[in-house]
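TA notes, week 10

Several of you asked for a full example with nothing omitted. So below is the full record: structure tokens for the whole chain, then the designed sequence directly under it. When grading your own attempts, check the secondary structure regions first.
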């Protein structure tokens, strides 16, 4: 006996929703970066625009960050809330797995270190918060 079209569609939707739930739970959990780190940051205390070789600008949002030719998506942080598993892409290169460490060193200052990426040193870089007027901290 054929199934009623409405019941058949409902079962398909339920099965699809269950499958999507399983797929979503098997991937890494995206992080939510703390509000105090969100926004635009500069390596220069005064200037808040990209100047190749002189000033780098870092944009941090809820799920990751971008600077120069690098774009990263972060997963849930460690227990201290400072080290994040990261999936980063530099230029046209494939996505690389590593870790990003943030250290909030003042209300308008932070240090960021990229760990485990062949295209970056593991030294931390100091950034200063850009003001709404376009000037750094």
């Amino acid at each position: 006996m054929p199934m009623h079209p409405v019941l058949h569609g409902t079962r398909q939707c339920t099965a699809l929703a269950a499958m999507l739930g399983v797929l979503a739970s098997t991937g890494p959990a995206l992080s939510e970066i703390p509000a105090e780190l969100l926004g635009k940051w500069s390596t220069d205390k005064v200037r808040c625009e990209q100047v190749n070789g002189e000033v780098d600008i870092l944009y941090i949002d809820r799920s990751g960050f971008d600077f120069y030719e690098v774009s990263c998506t972060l997963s849930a942080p460690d227990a201290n809330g400072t080290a994040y598993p990261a999936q980063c892409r530099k230029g046209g290169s494939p996505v690389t797995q590593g870790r990003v460490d943030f250290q909030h060193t003042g209300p308008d200052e932070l240090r960021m270190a990229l760990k485990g990426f062949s295209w970056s040193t593991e030294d931390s870089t100091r950034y200063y918060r850009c003001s709404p007027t376009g000037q750094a901290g």
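The longest strand covers residues 96-106. Use that as a sanity check on your answer.
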